[in-house]
Fold this protein.
Amino acid sequence: MQAERSISAVKARLARARAVTVLTGAGISADSGVPTFRGADGLWRNFRAEDLATPEAFARDPRLVWEWYNWRRELIATKSPNPAHYVLADLERRLERFWLITQNVDGLHRAAGSQQLSEIHGNIWKVRCTRCGRVDENRTVPIAILPSCTACNGLLRPHIVWFGESLATEDLDRSYEALRRCEVLLIIGTSGVVYPAASFAPVAKAAGAFVVEINLDATPNTEVVDVSLQGRAKEVVPELLS
Ligand code: APR
């Protein structure tokens, strides 16, 4: 009953909102079969993401880091967007102002048709040269280990923001602007422990937005948001936007 009332309240807010911002994390892609980072299936050969997704790990053992990315690229290549990804792409087309901030690097939002988005942690289908900085799309699966730059032969790395690295200024600026000007912020499937995204809910709240969380579990954001809906992204998000 309480949950139904909450869902109706969120639907009503969304129905009259002209500016909506959405923040997504690994939970939305979990419904497409992509393992989350902090879930039970997030380990690879007993390494955690924090052990591999760092510049130090890459400097120490680029082969190991690339093997992990090869595993993830092979897995993600077989996955498709789910209904939650598709309804967010529809929402973007219906609204005057919409911005999607995703921490996911899998490219599933773009595959679903989203265009107004910042992939703040990068994209697993892009590579960057550690010598000349050139960025290219690369969808080869499996990628040759170790991959090298076609322009200068330097070592390529995934075009991903690793722990300890800064987000692109443009992505941050666009994200904060979208957080400050939205009427509704939807936070979908993120554990809310990795910064800066972990600080986005209070920013939107302080600017007057109605903030909604959709997650299987409680998170640090649960305390901050106006409504927290427990459930699977692929079920709850389409229900909110139907
Ligand atoms: N529907 C909704 N939420 C879900 C679902 C689902 N089907 N499945 C899992 N979740 C929730 C979990 O309860 C958890 O809160 O999704 C969240 C996933 O959390 P993480 O694995 O920590 O992923 P995320 O928050 O995206 O991680 C942030 O950390 O490792 C880095 O750079 C990486 O972008 C990543 C960042």
